[in-house]
């Protein structure tokens, strides 16, 4: 029984790593720079691991690939919707948004995503899993126990560090807003009357007006937001707050500062 659970856990880890690689490559290609995609700091996207293992357990006995496709597409969409909702309730933030895509449900899931997950389900159940199962079956029990213990410890530690790093996200955004408000007062502008889009434009203009201003804003964001919070903003281009449009503007500005800083660093490497 323990061996079976440990092999399931290794499958979860393996497919989580594969999902992380898929997401990171996709986002990095779109951003034209490397992005460590995923909620955790390590190379894992647990939602992919959970979805893949559930597909193997629930759909492995279905011979018809069309039925596997339909079941995987529907099941993965439900899992993605529930995960989006749960993370929104926990962190008061929307991590991804498909509102711009056709045939979406509240921006949490979309038809294109369901098709991709359905195809991935067929690939996993019919092609990848027989190989994965054979490989994990060949692992000696002692090695299996040790590998699972190490992976479990790393996963728990990463989860704790990530959640602790995201704690107080909105409070830190409020602190950043206060610092920017003070900056605006010195510049003779009135922040409280600005709406979200106006705030984004003004802060972007400030950051691009001079290197000194850019450095001040970047240092303010770095000093207030934790490294974990800044990484999340960088890793999730659609990350938005569910409580205030001002928070969205602050998040967008921090993302602009991170992107510009990264671009400057890349140019320096080329020289």
Automatic annotation (TrEMBL):
The keyword Transmembrane applies. Keywords: Membrane, Transmembrane, Transmembrane helix. This is ABC transporter permease. The lineage of its organism: Bacteria, Bacillati, Actinomycetota, Actinomycetes, Bifidobacteriales. The chain crosses the membrane at residues 12-31, 38-60, 66-88, 109-132, 138-157. It comes from Bifidobacterium thermacidophilum. Pfam families: ABC_trans_CmpB (PF06541).
């Amino acid at each position: 029984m323990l061996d079976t659970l440990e092999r399931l856990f290794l499958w979860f880890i393996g497919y989580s790593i594969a999902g992380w690689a898929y997401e990171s490559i996709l986002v990095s290609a779109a951003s034209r720079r490397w992005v460590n995609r995923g909620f955790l700091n390590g190379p894992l996207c647990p939602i992919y691991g959970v979805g893949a293992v559930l597909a193997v357990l629930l759909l492995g006995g279905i011979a018809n690939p069309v039925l596997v496709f339909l079941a995987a597409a529907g099941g993965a969409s439900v899992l993605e919707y529930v995960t989006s909702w749960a993370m929104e309730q926990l962190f008061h933030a929307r991590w991804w948004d498909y509102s711009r895509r056709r045939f979406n449900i509240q921006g949490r899931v979309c038809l294109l995503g369901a098709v991709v997950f359905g195809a991935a389900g067929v690939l996993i159940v019919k092609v990848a899993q027989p190989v994965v199962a054979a490989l994990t079956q060949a692992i000696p029990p002692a090695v299996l126990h040790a590998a699972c213990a190490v992976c479990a410890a790393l996963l728990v530690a990463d989860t704790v560090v990530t959640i602790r790093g995201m704690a107080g996200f909105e409070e830190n955004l409020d602190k950043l807003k206060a610092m920017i408000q003070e900056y605006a007062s010195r510049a003779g502008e009135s922040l409280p009357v600005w709406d979200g889009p106006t705030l984004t434009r003004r802060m972007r203009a400030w950051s691009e007006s001079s290197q000194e201003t850019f450095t001040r804003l970047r240092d303010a964001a770095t000093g207030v937001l934790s490294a974990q919070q800044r990484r999340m903003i960088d890793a999730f281009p659609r990350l938005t707050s569910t409580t205030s449009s001002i928070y969205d503007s602050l998040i967008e500005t921090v993302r602009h500062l991170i992107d510009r800083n990264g671009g400057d660093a890349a140019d320096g490497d080329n020289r």
